[in-house]
Amino acid sequence: MKKSASFIVGMCLLLAVSSLTGCKSLKKNPAGVSGSDGLYGSDGANGSFAMGDRFTGGTEHPGVFAPVYFDYDSSQVADTERSKIDTVAQDLKQNDAHAVIIEGNCDERGSNEYNLALGERRAQAIRTYLAGLGIGADRIQTKSYGEEKPVNPGHDEAAWAANRRGEFVLYY
């Protein structure tokens, strides 16, 4: 019993020390944010960037821009939705200190795993469009909520259409 208590105390100390002396150039990835290894750096290769470089001390502004809506089971950005992304690109071009997280969302139909993947594809489609407009990958991050963040809790086509969206969270 004494040996296992010592082991637990030792592990707690090791965890505490490692959290205090961790790598300063990488930070732990928030749940659902894209990145293959759970960490993100400033390379921008996977749609992520060093949060400390842009976001520490910054202010979050969700809902500043209109959401981009998607058809059922689709991650294709419709022509009618592109002007919303153009507006975001204009802001980012005019304000070098601004960065954005694109949040992909789905309606309640489909499994949790499927909807998380679809939400990520939707966010990535918007990211690709923004990058095509000249916005650097180091300023765009994606996150999928799947079906977990509905704006309309209903169970009909109107509710489902409102929940199939990509939203922008602006930081500066």
Question: Briefly, what is this?
Answer:
The protein has 172 residues and is α+β, with helices and mostly antiparallel strands. 37% of the residues lie in helices and 17% in strands. The chain contains five helices and seven strands, in the order H-E-E-H-E-E-H-E-H-E-H-E.
Spatial gap, N to C terminus: 52 Å
Shape: elongated
Order of helices and strands: HEEHEEHEHEHE
Q: How many helices does DSSP assign?
A: 5
The stretches of 5 or more residues where confidence is low (pLDDT under 50) are 1-57
Rg is 19 Å
- Helix percent band: 25-40%
What is the count of β-strands? Answer: 7
Averaged pLDDT: 76
The largest sheet, given as strand count, sense and whether it forms a barrel, is: 5 strands, mixed
* Derived structural class: alpha+beta
The portion of residues forming beta strands comes to 15-25%
Write up this protein.
There is one protein chain. The protein has 172 residues and is of the alpha+beta class. It has helices at 2-20, 51-54, 82-94, 112-132, 157-163; strands spanning 27-28, 39-40, 60-62, 68-69, 99-105, 140-146, 165-171. The chain is elongated.
Give the tags.
172 residues; alpha+beta; 5 helices; disordered N terminus
Break the fold down into its secondary structure elements and pairings:
Blueprint: H1 2-20, E1 27-28, E2 39-40, H2 51-54, E3 60-62, E4 68-69, H3 82-94, E5 99-105, H4 112-132, E6 140-146, H5 157-163, E7 165-171
Parallel strand pairs: 5-6
Antiparallel strand pairs: 1-2, 3-7, 4-7, 5-7
